[in-house]
Amino acid sequence: MGDLFESKEDHGKLGASESPCSDNPCSDSPSGAALSVGNVPQGVLGIGTDIIECDRIAQMMQKHGETFIQRVFTAEEIDYCSRHRTADQHYAGRWAAKEAVLKVLGTGWAKGIQWTDVEVVRDVSGAPSIRLRNRAAEIAAERGIREVLISISHCKAFATAFAVGVR
């Protein structure tokens, strides 16, 4: 990636005490002014984010009931979310994660992808991770994406997710 700044003139506009990476161990410059992140950017093949109002998911659940839940979420996701008092927030977080992953894949809900082709599961530590199946897994493989990293947050009003597709 090289220098963080467009030109050496831009570099001079930032005082030494303001260097964004002076303490960055990845810096390739003795002064710490240049940012080098090695192969990480080359390994990132896509990013995606989404935010949704939790009330929107709650309304869909009330209006369409089990039909909505079964169509959008896998059995494992349903089991996890339904165990929580604030199930709508957990469902909303998984909805946002699915949307963010589709942005990573660059497809949206097209090309034969079903809602349940993107699943949020929990790893051993309890952190969310993504399991792709069927057409979503095929598209990821075609694009060289071996893993999708995910971060999910929610509160009473909103749920959000950020996904990164990596080699």
Keywords, please?
about 170 residues, alpha+beta, Ribosomal Protein L22, Chain A, 2 domains, 3-stranded antiparallel sheet, two-stranded antiparallel sheet, globular, disordered N terminus
Shape: globular
Radius of gyration from the alpha-carbon trace, in angstroms: 20 Å
Strand tally: 5
- Fraction in beta strands: 15-25%
Helical amount:
25-40%
Which CATH first-tier class of the largest domain would you pick?
Answer: Alpha Beta
Assigned CATH architecture of the largest domain = Alpha-Beta Complex
Major β-sheet, in short?
3 strands, antiparallel
Poorly predicted segments: 1-40
Kindly summarize this structure in a few lines.
With 167 residues, the protein is α+β, with helices and mostly antiparallel strands. It has two domains: 1-38, no CATH class; 43-166, Ribosomal Protein L22, Chain A (Alpha-Beta Complex), CATH 3.90.470.20.
Secondary structure blueprint with pairings:
Layout: H1 8-12, H2 40-43, E1 44-53, H3 54-72, H4 75-82, H5 87-105, E2 118-122, E3 128-132, H6 134-142, E4 147-154, E5 158-166
Antiparallel strand pairs: 1-5, 2-3, 4-5
Helix pairs in contact: 3-5, 4-5
